[in-house]
Amino acid sequence: MVGNLIENFKKGDRQIWGILIFLSALSLWTVYSATRSLAYRQQAGNTEYYLFKHLFVLILGLAIAYFVQKIDLKYFIKISKFLIVLSVPLLFYTMFFGNEANDAKRWITLPIINISFQSSDLAKLALIMYTSRTLAVNQGVIKSFKEGFIPVMVPIALICGLIMVENMSTALILFMTNIVIMFLGRVNMKYIFYTFGIGVIAGSLIVFASSFSTESRYETWKGRINDYINHDPDNPTYQVMHSKMAIAKGGLARFAPGKSTQSNYLPEAYSDFIYATIIEEYGMLGGAVVIFVYLLLLYRIVKIVENSNRVFSALMALGLGMSIVMQAFINMGVAVNLLPVTGLTLPFVSMGGSSIWFNGFAMGIILSVSRHVQSSTPSPTPNKRTPSNELNV
């Protein structure tokens, strides 16, 4: 059994597996360091409570990636259609009946098993897969406005608009990722500019409409942007102040695992601001290593895409990888005060549940593409739309 596991790992991109294991190990140690005091206060002195809870989440996330990588690529085409249809009603349900946390309705709790997840995580995965599928299947008519552009634009506008109401940062990342996918999928540049313009107008209308609702996220958006633009260096906000203190304490280089002190004061030190905790314990060099690891992840994904001979798998792998790496850099930018606070987590490092599992699913798809690249021989790219074309994209 162990031999079969090792053999299956070898069939995927081993460098990506190494990156996932490294980030998971870093996550486990940093989350434990950042949650000991919290666990002691909330769990009657059980300082390991969040450690074991997070360990279970990470193991399950890696297991999801392992099993998803074994799925044949042709099944993701069918899965993408199912997920995009499922995402729309789930986003509507979340908007009106979702669980509220930090003044945002982003969560749905599944009955009986009592597990919560963000519907936007599912929708993000679904939209990237569906956009890649649509572009691949329609390559023969991709320059057509009616047959090539409309089928792509409508799902993007609908999903991103629904996500934006409660989660602007995720919607923006998803929108930009799909713009890149459209560009690589040979969509007419004129239509891509149309999409960008439609996105800007639609986003502005959502923000404007939200300003009239007392239950919207408008005040949160406004407050975060104002705090970032008009911040006083001598009187920073509470989060920014303790994040800067953590970074200053880390200095250029430090090796002090488990010795973070600002995590006792910094809100979300184990989640949104975990990068500041990493720098406090390992210094700026430690933070640079984390940046390098995410860049290496993107590089490996690009290499997989370069060697892929299928449009669908190439676009899907690059889109999923870009969204993960983009989220990572935004999270790190927030932690060092280069960007306004967004609420985005650091993929595979921040403490979480469903976000790690959905990212594990995304990485499993990327690893599945890498397995296909290793085992396949070059085949011609489909150049016209036929019923059988869908299985060869």
Sheet of most strands = 3 strands, antiparallel
What's the helix-strand series? HHHHEEEHHHHHHHHH
Residue ranges: pLDDT <50 for 5 or more in a row? 379-392
Distance between the termini: 34 Å
Domain unit count: 2
Helix content: 55-70%
Shape: globular
**Beta-strand content:** under 5%
List the helices and strands and how they pair.
Elements: H1 2-11, H2 14-42, H3 49-68, H4 73-97, E1 99-101, E2 104-110, E3 115-118, H5 119-137, H6 145-164, H7 168-184, H8 189-210, H9 218-229, H10 238-250, H11 274-307, H12 311-335, H13 354-375
Antiparallel strand pairs: 1-2, 2-3
Helix pairs in contact: 2-3, 2-11, 3-13, 4-5, 4-6, 5-6, 5-7, 5-12, 6-7, 6-8, 7-8, 7-12, 10-11, 11-12, 11-13, 12-13
Highlighted features:
mainly alpha; three-stranded antiparallel beta sheet; 13 helices; 4% strand
Describe the protein's architecture and organization.
This protein is mostly helical. The protein has two domains: 1-70 and 237-393, no CATH class; 75-230. Helix content is 68%, strand content 4%. It has a three-stranded antiparallel beta sheet. Helix 3 runs parallel beside helix 13 (354-375), helix 6 runs parallel beside helix 8 and helix 7 packs antiparallel against helix 8. The two termini are 34 Å apart. The model is unreliable at 379-392 (pLDDT under 50).
